[in-house]
């Protein structure tokens, strides 16, 4: 039961437009596709077709979010703080994961001892729902950012390790032989051959890792967070029956997820493709 | 397996030596003992009931996801115009953790199985749907022309080109879909289960500080997730993809 | 190409219909009983465990359909949506409900009350013996809960304020571990969390909120249900009165019953701990002016922080007639 068996298990799920349609269609269609259902919802709420306490109208949701994001929120600037706390947790966790995940991935891929130690442990940990860690971490760490950051770290680092190992496995070993026979040192091989070779995989791992980590973080915050966080904002709203904040929180979470996926990673990929000719595996 | 054994031994030793309280981190042997007790007749095999309910929910969600995701994926994969309308919603909903839907489903569908299955369904359907779309869109139109020119009808095209050609991505999507369904289940059961299910058991055990039972649930979740990923889908992949279509595994 | 598309579409429709049927079959399993049925929401708390441990309404010919919720907010949402006829609620949540949906429900009886069910715990090895000694230290609390509001009142009464401490917000289930691990110097929690931590031998209680406020939780019923099921409600409450008498009279025995009820789901909990927890709670009783009056200050502070727009008229929500009739009917025995 090695990692090989789970190769391919994490599919690159992203929507890529293959054919470029007209500019009008490209920008207008998404707007219409999203706006029309929202308008119907607003209408249904205004006409009293649905219980507006349980299903607040989009406009009411936007207003509630705006108030909660401002100085009259309760506590003041609550939405902003929640957002920032979630972002801080995901950055800290993913940052740690990037460092340790890459190191462990390299250890597994390049060294015999690394393979022997980490491989079995990781192939056991990988299928565990990340969220199942939360109660354990809560007991061990208690309640503060350590718990949520660790959840993010676990979720993200597994993806990174997995993809780095996959990247090393696909590197053509002949490259090393050629390099060595031409008198390259181990360090040179590492920097010139291995690093560029695994870079696209690292990027894929990072992107998938952020996606997994974001989901895990929200769930963990719903169950655990001590102060702020979008997940906690939703779970508090559940406690106090603020449906507008529940919906608003979900919308914010979706938008942030989109932001990571399309804006940040879209930008990184564009830059790296241009500069190093790195094409991320899709 | 040796490193795992070492970790377990260290853990056991740490608890026995008093480095960590048994009410915080119970020893592996204590967890196993509690698990055996829950399996025994004395507790009415309650662990089996919890596990069975969880499996049922996760599988129901997965089956629904396949039944909805695959046909929809085939359609959207073939119909460019429809895809362009649906795409923005997919882009918006895909990064959204399915658990976040739980509060809304609790209001619309109520506490219990329906909500849990619906949340897990949302967790599973996107990987299935998107991998199907990707699989279908990756098929070169020439393949379809060739088969059609050989006299195949629409069904023939479907069976001989669309299905086999998209199978590797489809299987990868299934695997990922089930993994997501299983992962989402824990959280959904913690928030929405009215009775039974491993997530419910963990939640209820936490409520009454029964740490050992909590760990039994977590270990079982891990073991079952491991079993699905490696044994079930591993062999399924081996049977279908590798036999029919060797391009599936990028080696 | 067009044709293949259509067949795929048809196939999709057929499959979707199948999926829908499967989904419906999940929902269609509710049993319809001949006896009048009350749909009740419960949570993972000892009093609700006692409620589930015995069919208290059976002698009065009322069926119960019990739904368990993981939080009080979820329960009240289901109550608003009409999925359950009865719920329980108190403090801020009840005020929100009263402010937003005043025509929806009646307050018909008391579920439980008593300041003693809120306690301050410290680690068993701690040298701290009073709340004063905690000044400047970290305390684990659940902000926004009735428990926390009562603790703030306690501090005020003893000449302190919440700013004298570092309040760390957490979920109540995590307070015990946080205290045990030394993440916080103390924790303020409600039962059964305090009693279980004490019985486990990992924490000790240094103060309770007894005499500060009663912090009542009320039994709520939907008005549409009350209108059509008057007698059922009276019968139901009679069972609740029996249960209250049983718990208040013999908490240890009630703890036993609660622990048995909990263990049916595979959870092991010390019956002594639940007995201790129940000894600190007063279960049931009529809605009194004193208890309702406790909602006033909560509503005022919520209005001040713009959580509600106006102070609800709680008197208009009370309907004591059900309880009065039920108390004549109840067997008033300590639960055979």
Major interchain interface with per-chain residue totals: A-B, 70 and 72 residues
Biggest β-sheet description of chain B:
none
- Unreliable sequence segments of chain B: 245-251
> What level of helicity do the residues of chain B show?
over 70%
- Secondary structure class of chain C reads alpha/beta
Mean pLDDT of chain C: 84
The level of helicity of chain C is: 40-55%
Low-confidence stretches of chain C: 1-13, 21-33
Oligomer class: heterotrimer
Helices of chain B, by number, come to 10
Can you walk through the features of this model?
The complex is a heterotrimer of chains A (282), B (251) and C (336). Chain A is built from ten helices and no strands. Chain A has 282 residues and is mainly α. Chain A has helices at 23-46, 58-69, 78-110, 112-125, 133-141, 145-170, 173-181, 186-223, 230-239, 243-276. Chain A is elongated, with a radius of gyration of 23 Å. Chain B has 251 residues and is mainly α. Residues 245-251 of chain B have low confidence and may be disordered. Chain C is of the alpha/beta class and 336 residues long. Helix content of chain C is 46%, strand content 18%. Chain C has helices spanning 2-27, 46-53, 72-80, 91-100, 146-157, 172-181, 193-200, 223-228, 230-249, 251-263, 271-279, 289-293, 295-304, 321-329; strands at 37-42, 63-68, 86-90, 105-113, 118-123, 138-141, 166-169, 186-190, 203-208, 217-222, 282-283. The model of chain C is unreliable at 1-13 and 21-33 (pLDDT under 50).
Sum this structure up briefly.
The complex is a heterotrimer of chains A (282), B (251) and C (336). Chain B is mainly alpha-helical and 251 residues long. Helices cover 79% and strands 0% of the residues of chain B.
Strand and helix layout:
The complex is a heterotrimer of chains A (282), B (251) and C (336).
Chain A: H1 23-46, H2 58-69, H3 78-110, H4 112-125, H5 133-141, H6 145-170, H7 173-181, H8 186-223, H9 230-239, H10 243-276
Helix pairs in contact in A: 2-3, 2-10, 3-4, 3-6, 3-8, 3-9, 5-6, 6-8, 8-9, 8-10, 9-10
Chain B: H1 2-16, H2 28-39, H3 46-78, H4 80-93, H5 102-109, H6 113-137, H7 141-149, H8 154-192, H9 198-207, H10 211-244
Helix pairs in contact in B: 2-10, 3-4, 3-6, 3-8, 3-9, 5-6, 6-8, 7-8, 8-9, 8-10, 9-10
Chain C: H1 2-27, E1 37-42, H2 46-53, E2 63-68, H3 72-80, E3 86-90, H4 91-100, E4 105-113, E5 118-123, E6 138-141, H5 146-157, E7 166-169, H6 172-181, E8 186-190, H7 193-200, E9 203-208, E10 217-222, H8 223-228, H9 230-249, H10 251-263, H11 271-279, E11 282-283, H12 289-293, H13 295-304, H14 321-329
Parallel strand pairs in C: 1-2, 6-7, 6-8
Antiparallel strand pairs in C: 3-10, 4-10, 4-11, 5-8, 5-9
């Amino acid at each position: 039961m090695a990692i090989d068996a789970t190769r391919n298990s994490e599919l690159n799920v992203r929507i890529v437009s293959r054919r470029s349609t007209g500019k009008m269609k490209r920008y207008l269609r998404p707007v219409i596709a999203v706006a029309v259902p929202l308008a119907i919802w607003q209408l249904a709420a205004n006409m009293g077709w649905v219980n507006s306490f349980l299903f607040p109208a989009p406009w009411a949701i936007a207003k509630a979010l705006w108030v909660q994001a401002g100085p009259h929120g309760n506590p003041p600037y609550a939405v902003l703080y929640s957002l920032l706390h979630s972002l801080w947790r995901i950055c800290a966790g993913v940052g740690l994961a990037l460092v340790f995940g890459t190191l462990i991935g390299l250890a597994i891929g390049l060294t015999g001892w690394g393979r022997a130690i980490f491989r079995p442990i990781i192939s056991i940990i990988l299928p565990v729902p990340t969220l199942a860690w939360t109660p354990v971490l809560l007991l061990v760490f208690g309640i503060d950012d350590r718990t949520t950051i660790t959840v993010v770290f676990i979720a993200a680092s597994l993806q990174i390790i997995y993809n780095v190992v996959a990247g090393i496995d696909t590197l053509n070993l002949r490259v090393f032989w050629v390099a060595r026979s031409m008198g390259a040192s181990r360090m040179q091989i590492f920097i010139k051959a291995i690093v560029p070779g695994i870079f696209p995989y690292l990027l894929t791992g990072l992107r998938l890792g952020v996606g997994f980590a974001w989901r895990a973080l929200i769930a963990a915050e719903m169950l655990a967070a001590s102060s702020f966080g979008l997940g906690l904002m939703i779970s508090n709203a559940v406690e106090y029956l603020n449906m507008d904040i529940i919906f608003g929180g979900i919308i914010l979470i979706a938008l942030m997820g989109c932001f990571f996926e399309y804006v940040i990673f879209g930008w990184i990929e564009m830059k790296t493709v241009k500069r190093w000719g790195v094409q991320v595996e899709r | 397996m040796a490193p795992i054994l070492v970790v377990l031994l260290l853990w056991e030793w740490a608890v026995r030596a008093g480095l960590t309280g048994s009410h915080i981190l119970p020893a592996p042997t204590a967890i196993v003992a509690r698990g055996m007790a829950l399996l025994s007749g004395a507790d009415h095999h309650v662990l089996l009931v919890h596990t069975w309910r969880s499996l049922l929910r996760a599988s129901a969600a997965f089956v629904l996801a396949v039944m909805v995701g695959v046909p929809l994926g085939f359609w959207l994969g073939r119909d460019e115009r429809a895809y362009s309308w649906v795409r923005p919603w997919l882009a918006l909903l895909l990064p959204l953790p399915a658990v976040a839907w739980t509060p809304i489903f609790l209001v619309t569908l109520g506490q219990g199985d329906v909500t849990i299955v619906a949340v897990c369904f949302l967790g599973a359907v996107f990987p299935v749907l998107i991998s199907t779309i990707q699989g279908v869109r990756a098929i070169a139109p020439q393949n379809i022309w060739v088969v059609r020119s050989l006299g195949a009808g629409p069904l023939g095209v479907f069976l001989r080109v669309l299905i086999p050609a998209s199978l590797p991505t489809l299987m990868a999507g299934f695997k990922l879909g089930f993994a997501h369904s299983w992962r989402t289940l824990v959280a959904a059961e913690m928030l929405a289960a009215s009775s039974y299910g491993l997530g419910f058991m963990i939640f209820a055990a936490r409520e009454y500080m029964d740490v050992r039972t909590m760990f039994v649930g977590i270990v079982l979740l891990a073991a079952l997730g491991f079993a699905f990923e490696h044994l079930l889908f591993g062999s399924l992949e081996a049977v279908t993809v590798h036999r029919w279509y060797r391009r599936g595994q990028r080696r | 190409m067009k044709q293949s598309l259509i067949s795929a579409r048809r196939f999709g429709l057929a499959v979707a219909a199948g999926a829908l049927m499967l989904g419906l079959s999940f929902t269609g399993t509710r049993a319809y009983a001949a006896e009048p049925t009350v749909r009740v929401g419960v949570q993972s708390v000892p009093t609700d465990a006692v409620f589930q441990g015995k069919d208290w309404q059976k002698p009065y010919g009322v069926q119960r359909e019990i739904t368990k919720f993981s939080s009080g907010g979820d329960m009240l949402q289901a109550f608003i949506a009409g999925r359950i006829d009865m719920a329980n609620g108190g403090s801020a949540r009840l005020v929100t409900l009263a402010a937003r949906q005043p025509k929806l429900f009646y307050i018909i009886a008391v579920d439980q009350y008593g300041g003693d069910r809120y306690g301050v715990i410290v680690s068993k090895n701690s040298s701290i013996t009073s709340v004063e000694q905690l000044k400047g230290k970290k305390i684990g609390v659940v902000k926004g809960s009735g428990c926390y509001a009562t603790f703030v009142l306690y501090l005020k009464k003893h000449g302190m304020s919440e700013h004298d401490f570092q309040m760390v917000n957490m979920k109540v289930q995590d307070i015990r571990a946080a205290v045990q691990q030394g993440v916080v110097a103390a924790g303020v929690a409600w039962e059964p969390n305090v009693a279980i931590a004490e019985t486990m031998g990992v924490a000790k209680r240094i103060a309770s909120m007894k005499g500060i406020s009663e912090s009542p939780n009320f039994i709520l019923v939907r008005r549409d249900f009350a209108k059509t099921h008057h007698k059922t409600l009276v019968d139901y409450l009679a069972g609740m009165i029996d249960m209250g008498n049983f718990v208040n009279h013999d908490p240890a025995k009630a703890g036993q019953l609660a622990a048995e009820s909990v263990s049916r789901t595979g959870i092991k909990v010390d019956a002594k701990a639940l007995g201790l927890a129940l000894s600190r709670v007063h279960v049931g009783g009529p809605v009194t002016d004193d208890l309702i009056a406790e909602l006033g200050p909560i509503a005022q502070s919520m209005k001040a922080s713009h959580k509600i727009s106006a102070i609800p008229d709680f008197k208009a929500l009370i309907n004591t007639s059900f309880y009065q009739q039920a108390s004549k009917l109840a067997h008033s025995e300590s639960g055979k």
